[in-house]
Write a structure and sequence with these properties.
This protein is α+β, with helices and mostly antiparallel strands. It is built from ten helices and 13 strands. The chain folds into two domains: about 170 residues, no CATH class; about 210 residues, no CATH class. It is about 40% helix and about 20% strand. The longest helix has about 35 residues. It is globular. The two termini are about 40 Å apart.
Length: about 400
């Protein structure tokens, strides 16, 4: 029995009274979190003075209004736990200045609080949050995918101007029946992924239209005067445009990864180092000492395309779904020359350029589509790695 944490996000529209209560809960959660950050900032390395972090009892004793808050009792404790995770990540990272815990603001686009002691029952088509907060109506289209008895926690989240109820379930995930499919996946900029079967999968045109809409709204924001009322309104519009783009990309990646997992027993994929691939290129100078912007603009365009396509998100979804449903997911070393090797004879075409989408092997004369050939090589190399791993025998003790 393998129990996994599975979340379901349900949008809902609260009443005016409930909305005011939820906004107060967001504020109380921010208060508890910011008190931890405030104590963290008092650390003095020279005098070796350790910060004193207030607990929930201390904060309620010092602030009478916090006792009458509609927020669930353990939501404040969860805020403290969230800060401890941020503090641990800060000390774990090498670049301290970029990962330092910061104060939560009421102007943040995402506000939330979490309750880890949920009610495990339904009142008709409504889920009761608490006695003070009331209940949330769940529509038929958003019916629960898992039994309410397996609910472990819920989170109320406001993203921009949309409220969500995020339910977290403890689910026993059963492996899917074995299938015969074996594929290799090559990730690219021209097409999102190319399969070893020859199929090429790319985002629908709607995603590109959403990207255009984001750029349009971002340009409008750049023409507003910072701090003005129109600037704040346009900033909200930009945040909503980014959210629509992100949700659409996530949904497409989930559908694609689920389909690949259901149709194939073995999946090979190249290891992606997106952070290294999207580093900003150094500015090259011409003979007069002026920056050469053509190469830099092409580099930025490619970096933007890589980041917008969300390669790492798709890879992560394939990895955890393969583990859940009993599939084999193997990643090939990132230095493996999958595009340069001829799949028919194994010869390496060292002079392959990025602009060459098709090429002919000089040794055997085979014609190759660059991406399909790379996917075939990735599949074969992943199979070899998998067989080598499974064939390693444990050393035997031959001592008499």
């Amino acid at each position: 029995m393998t129990v996994r944490k599975v979340a379901q996000r349900i949008p809902f529209k609260p009443s005016k009274t409930q909305s005011a209560l939820l906004e107060r809960c967001f504020g109380d959660r921010r208060f508890a979190y910011n008190r931890q950050v405030e104590a963290f900032n008092t650390f003095d390395k020279e005098n070796n003075s350790k910060p004193v972090y207030p607990n929930v009892t201390d904060m309620k004793r010092a602030n009478e209004w916090l006792r009458d808050s509609p927020i669930p009792s353990n939501a404040l404790s969860n805020a403290i736990m969230d800060f401890r995770k941020a503090r641990a990540a800060y000390f774990r990272k090498s670049e301290y200045a970029r990962n330092r815990p910061r104060f939560a603001s009421r102007h943040d686009n995402v506000q939330s609080f979490r309750n880890t002691m949920p009610i495990r029952r339904m009142d008709g088509d409504r889920y009761p949050l608490s006695r003070k907060l009331g209940s949330v109506r769940i529509r038929k289209r958003d019916k629960l995918r898992y039994p309410i008895e397996s609910l472990s926690s819920w989170t109320v989240k406001r993203e921009n101007r949309t409220y969500y109820l995020v339910l977290l379930f403890d689910v026993d995930i059963q492996p899917k029946p074995p299938v015969e499919g074996q594929i290799g996946i090559d990730v690219g900029v021209k097409d999102l992924i190319t399969l070893s079967t020859g199929e090429k999968i790319d985002y629908p045109d709607r995603l590109r239209r959403l990207e255009v809409n984001v750029r349009r709204e971002q340009r409008k924001l750049s023409r507003r005067r910072k701090g003005s009322s129109n600037y704040r309104k346009q900033r909200q519009v930009v945040a909503e445009a980014y959210a629509r783009l992100r949700h659409y990309r996530e949904d497409f990646q989930h559908q694609t990864s689920r389909r690949l997992i259901e149709e194939n027993q073995f999946i090979g994929m190249e290891t992606l180092m997106v952070r290294n691939m999207t580093r900003r290129a150094r500015r090259k100078l011409d003979a007069d000492g002026k920056p050469m912007r053509n190469g830099q603009s092409r580099k930025r365009a490619m970096n933007h395309a890589i980041l917008q396509d969300g390669w790492r998100g798709l890879m992560d979804k394939l990895a955890y779904k393969a583990e859940w449903y009993g599939r084999t997911f193997v990643q090939v070393d990132r230095f493996y020359p999958s595009s340069r090797l001829c799949h028919d004879c194994g010869r390496k075409y060292a002079g392959l350029r990025l602009s060459e989408r098709e090429w002919v092997c000089e040794h055997c004369g085979a014609w190759h589509d660059r991406d399909v050939n790379a996917a075939l090589n990735i599949r074969d190399e992943a199979l070899r790695i998998s067989q080598t791993t499974h064939n390693v025998k444990e050393p035997t003790d031959n001592r008499g």
